[in-house]
Write a sequence for this structure.
């Protein structure tokens, strides 16, 4: 993960935030997250996409574009409250680290990662570097067919986003945002 001006991201896992996949037939088949073998790990599922949104499904989920960050701006516009709920779950989790994931680690995980990193002041370039750790040559081929790159899409998405206002409008409180920043940042002395 990246660094912010005021600290570094804290890592250790006690919670797992599952960003569930869509129903079978919409791109990810038969994915059921395993229950952790340790009773002290809390699993929380937050659906950050509404696959009953027919317009969204037709435009993104039924196309090859769902596995690219091209759909992020549309998803961010449609599901502000869902994204805020995911970050609120991280903010309100018991002490310890939080693992958040979907199946591939690009789409739902990418949106939540982008929001988290942006909220704590990680630069757009460092956020892009973090995203690019999820290597997907197919994604780059698809984006090239549409005249863009991961770099262009991620940087444009971040430039159009005021993360704190976005999350507050989605239902998070200032206390949630403070708790989230406190959870993620370790102040350097």
């Amino acid at each position: 993960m990246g660094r912010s001006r005021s600290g570094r991201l804290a890592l250790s896992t006690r919670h797992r935030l599952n960003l569930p996949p869509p129903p079978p037939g919409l791109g990810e088949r038969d994915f059921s997250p395993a229950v952790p073998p340790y009773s002290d790990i809390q699993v929380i599922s937050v659906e950050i996409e509404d696959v009953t949104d027919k317009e969204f499904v037709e435009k993104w989920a039924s196309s090859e574009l769902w596995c690219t960050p091209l759909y992020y701006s549309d998803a961010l516009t449609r599901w502000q409250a869902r994204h805020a709920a995911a970050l609120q779950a991280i903010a309100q989790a018991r002490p310890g680290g939080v693992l958040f994931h979907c199946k591939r680690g690009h789409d739902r995980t990418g949106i939540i990662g982008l929001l988290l990193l942006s909220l704590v002041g990680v630069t757009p370039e460092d956020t892009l570097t973090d995203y690019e750790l999820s290597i997907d040559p197919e994604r780059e081929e698809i984006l090239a067919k549409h005249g863009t790159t991961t770099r262009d899409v991620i940087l444009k998405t971040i430039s159009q986003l005021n993360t704190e206002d976005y999350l507050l409008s989605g239902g998070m409180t200032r206390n949630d945002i403070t708790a989230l920043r406190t959870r993620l940042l370790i102040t350097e002395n």
In short: The first strand starts at residue 3 and ends at 4. Residues 11-182 form a domain with the Protein-Tyrosine Phosphatase; Chain A fold (CATH 3.90.190.10).
